[in-house]
Amino acid sequence: MKEKYFTKSFILKIKKFNTFELIAICFVLINIIILGFGSLIFTESIWNQYVYPNIWEPIVNDATVGDSGYNTHNTILFAVLLFAFVISFSGIFRIFNLPVRYDSIIAFIPWVILAATIRVLEDAEFFKENIDILFISPVIHFHLAIWLIFSGSIGIVATKNLTDKSNNEIFSRMINRIRFCTLFMLLLFYLIIFEPSLVNHSNLTWFSIPITIIVSVAVAWFSPSIPKLSWSPLERMLFSTGNTFCILTLGFWFQFLIEPWGTNSSQEFWPIVVSLGIPSITVILLYRFGIDAQIELEKRGLEPGVLEEKWTVSEWEKHESDEKNDIERLMSKAMIASPLTLAFTFGQLCDGLATWIGIDFGNYTEKHILGTKIMEIGSTIIEGDGAWLFLIVKIILTGVLILVFSKVRIEQNQKHLRLLIVLALLAVGLAPGLRNLGRNVLGV
């Protein structure tokens, strides 16, 4: 009976996926089978001739030798797989009814920052040999995804039946359980990620590390109740754990600034003002432009960019009324102030500015194929490294994305897809931008 129930339940879940989601899931599975298992079975033809030279060798070189440039094969594969993962997980999130609102992206931002900050530690030669490969793109994203899923799973189990926000006692119990779960994750993260590599740095005083751990514990304790949003326990757990991991990692940055353990050039702090200051000002202006419209929409029970359940996109486009015109005006402005829009705007501008500073004013080079081509064009227009053109392209791209997000309307069942698209934009924008900024600051 249990086997029949499980089979029936599995089939029902499969039927809930739409065609595009099923295609994306099949594409991901096929790649895992061909590139993964195929490399084990047909080692000579698949692993030796394709996977190793085009995918794995650049990752190994990045970890052992230094920056290793991307090639056409892995660039296309990673881009297509990223797109397929976004569609696949949007379907999985939707079917399992995971929380998704326009402010849900805030819970994931610390994890994007973590990917960048811990990648800079790898650039600074902190991690010991054999585990440093875990912090090279794209492996680092899969690696941290495991931590994210594990953290979220613990949070869900620990806070089961504690979701009643109106009951102060239940809410307090939920917050406390998330706090202790976050502290448990902090202990695991330190012991598994950082402790094994400390043997390589026994000559350092490490006087800042105890302070870092104390601050991390404090962040783990206070993060679950900040910010005061209508978040689910899962969102609070992810936000709290991501914040705590980031603080722990930044503590090792601070130690490097005081007592460098690896090869580094001069440390510069002015890139922080430019790379974070200009995006911050831009985000503040966008927020002020659209926040009143966002508040008005919330009063009407509407979410920026999302249609009511009674509407499909095609029906809404055909519909004509004064009410629609008013809602459209509010939604266009409200989406500009949405955390989704503000997040990718900050990330794209940060990436453009940090790359421009690192290449045109520093001693770094671009390793991505498309970025390299853009800079080559820039160097033919104005003598130099040409990263100024990359910055302009990023600014134009950001403007286009803001326009698209402000004008596109989605249905209720497409909210997970929108969230994951923004998360993907952060992975290819904010994460590399902060990594470039970190390298500029630490001189690694």
What's the overall average pLDDT, rounded? 87
- The total tally of domains equals 3
Any low-confidence stretches, pLDDT <50, length ≥5?
none
Order of helices and strands: HHHHHHHHHHHHHHHHH
Describe this structure in words.
The protein is an all-alpha fold and 444 residues long. It folds into three domains: 1-97, no CATH class; 99-263, no CATH class; 270-442, no CATH class. It is built from 17 helices and no strands. It has helices spanning 2-16, 19-41, 43-64, 72-95, 105-123, 139-158, 168-194, 208-222, 233-258, 270-299, 313-318, 322-336, 339-361, 369-381, 387-407, 415-428, 430-442. The longest helix has 30 residues, at 270-299. The radius of gyration is 23 Å and the shape is globular. The protein starts with a helix and ends with a helix. The model has no long low-confidence stretch (mean pLDDT 87).
In short:
The chain folds into three domains: about 1-95, no CATH class; about 100-265, no CATH class; about 270-440, no CATH class. It has helices spanning about 1-15, 20-40, 45-65, 70-95, 105-125, 140-160, 170-195, 210-220, 235-260, 270-300, 315-320, 320-335, 340-360, 370-380, 385-405, 415-430, 430-440.
Kindly list the characteristics that best describe this protein.
444 residues, 17 helices, mainly alpha, 73% helix
Question: How do the strands and helices of this protein lay out in sequence?
Answer:
Elements: H1 2-16, H2 19-41, H3 43-64, H4 72-95, H5 105-123, H6 139-158, H7 168-194, H8 208-222, H9 233-258, H10 270-299, H11 313-318, H12 322-336, H13 339-361, H14 369-381, H15 387-407, H16 415-428, H17 430-442
Helix pairs in contact: 2-3, 2-4, 4-16, 5-9, 5-16, 5-17, 6-7, 6-9, 7-8, 7-9, 8-9, 10-12, 10-13, 10-17, 12-15, 13-15, 13-16, 13-17, 14-15, 16-17
